[in-house]
Specification:
single chain, 743 residues, alpha+beta, Aldehyde Oxidoreductase, domain 4, 7-stranded mixed beta sheet, 18 helices, binds dioxothiomolybdenum(VI) ion
């Protein structure tokens, strides 16, 4: 609990919790309409080639079949304008654009029938013929000879590396990982004349609307996108995928509502993944541990048509102080689907490589890895030569070390034991970018005594509904159960995408401004309303406290409730819009380096006799500015840490080299961390408001909880087993190389 009675910083249960636990909350595929029909995609069984024929004769004769769409009859669909930040699409190519197959699982047709069962059966009866071509599915990217883009550079890293007394020169690999939100991708398309409403599972309803308007060739005002609740997304639902357009076209042609839900197997090939990265790290240091040189050269895989850069160099330029640095990137095209941002894109795999390298450097130097971080802490952002808005990375390490008991660590491999198991302890730093995105929120006082905030953003399951209600409650003094939060509809004032952990830090400012504006209108109304006790009073002498309008010197309890005033003025409600100024237009935020920080401490238990490894304990300390709701925030970080266990030990999408099919493309075969894999997790927030973020100083949380977990795990694994794993995930095969064969 906070020390004041403010609801900001108070652990607050989800206001939407009852809707979810009672099944009232409607997710995309829960929407049902009269005469609604069902669409099921047909997917390619090759990774590269041409569609030579589509034999629909059997499918067309099956019961309930209404329509089969494919590249010959989909009609005009358009691409989105390249580089338009307000219309970001997932794939360059539009649905069924040509007869070329570029990855296994690409949609080649979609079958629409009266029932889901009929559509599923008919989709299976569509016979696609192909002229296959050689597919490049090589997992390793080491054949790449193409261009490398310089991402960041200072000093002369190669000369400094050559002359450095202590060096690390290693390559670190992260695999393709698949987003596995519980809620499947789904679209329900409903036309009314030339207007379409799309019930979607979208992390950005406003962007989704603009994209679909461009793709369908409609004026933007003719498209509406609704996402009231999401069963998470992890980045996979940031931008539209082709199945949305397929549902929309089918619904238009049939003049009936169409529901299209992907199945879990399709989720592994048609809606993005975190792409494999190969990252070459060179670190040079003096014998005192001071960094002299840093090179970070990375490659990531991408599809045939999409130039997707996994941004691994995001945190590298500013995390540590080093005079000589260069980061380069390159993309390697394979016959796989388009990659997509996945929780902590860029920085999370990038920090895996950088922090793994730092841990190896610490060993070379014979310096404690914690000390190495403190020695190289940065005073300013050396990549932009700007001050940090608010950075407490050192304190994250120091607080975490104390909570974890780091001073009891003995450095020698296999030297720590407990209950017949070998313990390994490792740590790593974390960071994530912060930005304030432009947005608008509408705050309304209603004559029924309730308050309402409306914004065209969405709650992806992180607690957005609750955090927004907290801010409006703080601003107006009204209790949470008098506040309605309306989100997830592109018809609402423009809100940001639920991406980059940026919604909280962005929208709070607009809500606060909207509340201030609405209160000012109430004060003016009090002075202007006939019969009001404040009629003709000076507005500056009228105050507002806890829902009541009162004279500046009057006891607020004797004031007039706003609902009374609205009724007296014959108004149903009164509202005001508030806007958030983007951080890049704010002089206070433009000239500073805006990031969150964290430290991860990991304990693993190793049982060499049976080759069993478990992450047993994680201490995580996060510096993410002011924490609005410690309960929702801790929940985000704990969830991200569990995902980090998956990244470190379990997750990898593996493709059949002959066909390009993901061979572990199901929840049974693709390993994710479950409750049984979850360690004891201790989450601490430092809670320093960031002055560059605006009214509350919140930077937002979520993704940063994943940063640093995997390198802390691999460091702990090395400490326990003596095996340095530089390719995630850590596998039993790696651990069998351990020289420690018994406790
Ligand atoms: Mo997150 S990858 O910004 O949805």
């Amino acid at each position: 609990m906070s020390t004041t009675d403010s609801i900001i910083g108070t652990a607050t249960p989800r206001i939407d919790g009852p809707l979810k636990t009672t099944g009232v909350a409607e997710y995309a595929a829960d929407f049902h309409f009269d005469r609604m029909v069902h669409a099921v995609p047909v997917v390619s069984s090759i990774a590269s080639g041409h569609i030579s024929k589509l034999d629909l004769s059997a499918a067309e004769k099956m019961p309930g079949i209404l329509l089969i769409l494919h590249h010959c009859n989909i009609g005009p669909l358009y691409r989105t304008v390249p580089g338009d930040d307000n219309a970001t699409n997932s794939e360059v190519r539009s649905a069924f654009e040509d007869d070329v197959v570029r990855h296994w699982g690409q949609h080649v047709a979609v079958v629409i029938a009266e029932t889901l069962e009929q559509a599923t059966a008919a989709a299976a009866a569509v016979k696609a013929g192909y002229e296959p071509q050689a597919a490049n599915l090589r997992p390793s990217l080491d054949d790449y000879t193409g261009a490398r883009k310089s991402v960041s550079k200072r000093g002369d890293p190669d000369a400094a590396f050559a002359s450095a007394p202590v060096k690390i020169d290693q390559t670190y690999i992260t695999p393709n990982e698949t987003h596995n939100p519980i809620e499947l991708h789904a679209s329900v398309a409903v036309w009314d004349g030339d207007r379409v409403t799309l019930y979607e599972t979208s992390q950005g309803v406003v962007n989704h609307r603009v994209v679909m308007a461009q793709v369908l060739g409609l004026p933007v005002e003719n498209v509406r996108v609704v996402t009231r609740f999401l069963g998470s997304g992890f980045g996979g639902k940031l931008f539209p995928w082709p199945h949305t357009a397929m549902a929309a076209v089918a619904a238009r042609q049939l003049n009936r509502p169409v529901k299209l839900s992907l199945n879990r197997r399709m989720m592994f090939s048609a809606v993005g993944y975190r792409p494999r990265t190969e990252q070459h790290i060179k670190l040079g240091a003096g014998k005192d541990g001071k960094l002299l040189a840093l090179r970070h050269d990375y490659l990531n895989v991408t599809s045939q048509l999409d130039d997707f850069n996994e941004g691994c160099g995001e945190a590298t330029p500013y995390l540590y102080s080093v005079a000589n640095l260069e980061i380069t990137s390159g993309m390697v095209h394979r016959h796989v689907g388009a990659p997509m941002y996945m929780r902590g894109p860029g920085a999370v795999p990038g920090l895996y490589a950088l922090e793994a390298g730092m841990n190896e450097l610490a060993e070379q130097l014979n310096i404690d890895p914690l000390q190495l971080r403190l020695i190289n802490d940065a005073e300013k952002d050396e990549s932009t030569n700007t001050p940090f808005s608010s950075r407490h990375l050192k304190e994250c390490f120091e607080v975490g070390a104390k909570k974890f008991g780091w001073d009891k660590r003995t450095a020698a491999v296999g030297s720590m034991r407990r209950d017949g198991k070998i313990l390994g302890w490792g740590l790593a730093g974390a960071s994530w970018v912060a930005l304030r995105l432009p947005c608008t929120a509408n705050v309304e006082f209603c004559a029924n005594g309730r308050l309402c905030v409306r914004c065209g953003t969405q709650d992806i399951g992180t607690g957005t509904y609750t955090v927004f209600a907290q801010v409006l409650s703080e601003k107006t003094g009204m209790p949470l159960d008098h506040i309605d939060v309306i989100l997830g509809d592109s018809a609402l004032p423009d809100g940001p995408m639920s991406g980059g952990s940026m919604v909280t830090g962005s929208v709070l400012n607009a809500i606060a401004a909207g509340a201030d504006g609405a209160i000012q209108k109430l004060q003016k109304l009090a002075a202007a309303t006939e019969g009001s006790p404040f009629q003709n009073a000076k507005v500056e002498n009228i105050s507002f406290t806890k829902g009541r309008i009162h004279g500046k010197d009057q006891n607020p309890d004797n004031g007039m409730h706003f609902a009374e005033l609205l009724k007296m003025a014959r108004l149903n409600g009164l509202s005001a819009e508030g806007k958030t100024q983007p951080s890049w237009e704010d002089p206070k935020a433009r000239g500073v380096s805006l990031h969150s920080y964290g430290a991860q401490f990991v304990e693993v238990e190793w049982e060499p006799d049976i080759a069993r490894l478990r992450v047993s304990r994680v201490v995580t300390v996060i510096d993410a500015g002011r924490i609005i709701n410690p309960r929702a925030a801790a929940n985000q970080i704990a969830g991200a840490v569990v995902m980090g266990v998956g990244m470190g030990l379990l997750e990898e999408t593996v493709y059949d080299q002959r066909t390009g099919q993901p061979i572990n493309g199901s929840m049974a075969d693709y390993l994710m961390a479950t409750c049984a894999d979850s360690p004891a997790i201790d989450v601490t927030f430092l809670d320093y408001p960031d002055p560059a973020m605006g009214e509350y100083g919140a930077r937002g949380v979520g993704e940063i909880g994943l940063a640093g977990v995997a390198p802390a795990i691999t460091a702990a694994v090395y400490h326990a087993t003596g095996v340095r794993v530089r390719e995630l995930p850590v596998r039993i095969e790696h651990l069998l190389q351990s020289k420690i064969v018994t406790v």
